[in-house]
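Hi L., both proteins are below.
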Amino acid sequence: MALRRTLSTALVLRAVANRLGGILHGCLRHHAFYDEHTAWHATHSTAEPAAA
C-alpha cells in the first residue's frame, strides 16, 4: 500500500512540476508576466446541469 501511495504521489508531483515548467516557459517565450487566471484556467464548465 505504501509503495502505491509513493508512486502516485511522485506522479502527481511530476505532473505539477511539468505544468509549472510549461507556465514559466510560456511567460518567458512571450515576455509576459504571470497571470493566475490565464495559467490555471478551467477546462470544464462549472455550470450546473439543468434539472429535467
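That was the first. Here is the second:
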Amino acid sequence: MAKRAPIVEVIRRLSAEDQRAVADFAEYLLHRRRMEGTILEKLAALDADDEPLSEEEKRQLLAPDEYISLEDVKRELGL
C-alpha cells in the first residue's frame, strides 16, 4: 500500500465533525479562484457610475477614516 500524505493521517485522527469542517474548507479552497474571477468579471461589466457625488459623499472622501479604498477591500478579501 502506498504511503499516505501526512495530512490524511492528521485528518483521520479528527472527530467526524472536524473532518467535515476540513472537507468543507478544502472545497472552498478548490472553488475560490473560480469564484473570484466571476466576481471581478461582474464588477468590471457594470456600467460606470456617472451620478455626481452628494455633499455627504464628498465629505466622506475628505475624511480618510470614514471610507475604505478598493485596494483595502481587495486586501481584506484576499483578492
